[in-house]
């Protein structure tokens, strides 16, 4: 089944950054839901682990120009 991962997303400075990161995450294959907060620099992503990994999600955040890391 789907898992939920929490990620820190550094480098977001305005609401458009949030929309951009959410759009990137939601367009990834295997991602079902993504919610990003500017106030906390956190993103919550519901994903299918048979399609995409946590590392893939971190890499997508990085490729978009932000600093992504996994929250344990
Ligand atoms: Mo706002 Mo974010 O002008 O990459 S869109 S800083």
Structural features, described:
The chain has helices spanning about 15-25, 55-65, and strands spanning about 5-10, 30-35, 40-45, 65-70. The chain is of the alpha+beta class and about 70 residues long. The protein has one domain: Alpha-Beta Plaits (2-Layer Sandwich), CATH 3.30.70.100. Strands 2-3-1-4 form a four-stranded antiparallel beta sheet, with helices on one face. It is globular and about 35 Å long. The model has no long low-confidence stretch (mean pLDDT about 95). The structure holds dioxo(di-mu-sulfide)dimolybdenum (9UX). Dioxo(di-mu-sulfide)dimolybdenum binds near residues 13, 17 and 20.
What characterizes the major β-sheet? 4 strands, antiparallel
How many helical elements? 2
Q: Which spans have pLDDT < 50 for at least 5 consecutive residues?
A: none
Summarize model confidence as the mean pLDDT: 97
| Cα Rg | 11 Å
| DSSP E strands, number | 4
In short:
This protein has helices at 15-26, 54-63; strands at residues 3-10, 31-37, 42-47, 67-70. The protein is α+β, with helices and mostly antiparallel strands.
Feature tags:
72 residues; alpha+beta; Alpha-Beta Plaits; four-stranded antiparallel sheet; 2 helices; 4 strands; 35% strand; globular; binds dioxo(di-mu-sulfide)dimolybdenum
């Amino acid at each position: 089944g789907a898992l939920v991962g929490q990620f820190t997303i550094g480098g977001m400075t305005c609401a458009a950054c949030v929309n951009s990161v959410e759009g990137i995450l939601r367009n990834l294959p295997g991602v079902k839901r993504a919610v990003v907060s500017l106030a906390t620099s956190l993103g919550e992503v519901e994903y299918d682990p048979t399609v995409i990994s946590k590392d893939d999600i971190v890499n997508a955040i990085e490729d978009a120009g932000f600093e992504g890391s996994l929250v344990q």
